[in-house]
Amino acid sequence: MKALLRVLGRMMAQVVVFLIFLLMLVPVVGLAKDSLSAASGFHWMAALLLDSAWLFGVLTLCLLVWYGMRPSAPGWLRDYILVRW
Fold first, then answer.
1. Domain containing 57: what range?
2. Ramachandran region of residue 83, left (φ > 0), alpha (ψ -120 to 50) or beta?
3. What's the CA gap between 60 and 37, in Å, rounded?
4. For residues 78 and 68, is the Cβ–Cβ distance under 8 A?
5. CA 10 – CA 72 distance, rounded (Å)
6. pLDDT, tens digit, for every residue of 11-61?
């Protein structure tokens, strides 16, 4: 029973850390919106390239957090994650 509670606790901690990570992206959305409107005023191709760069950066961060929380992640990456195994 203790092992099950420990696993459930770790799962809940991972969910909380991921939600905190998503909340940290809220200011990034505002910055991305402002930069995209400025780039679209310049040229539509600049807005498309900037939008692709923002999307790639956010997806890369999400994947790093997801991979870093796995038990099979390398030690150097796990050092930056709040939930330790």
1. 2-78
2. beta
3. 23
4. yes
5. 15
6. 787 788 778 877 877 887 777 777 777 777 777 777 778 878 888 888 888
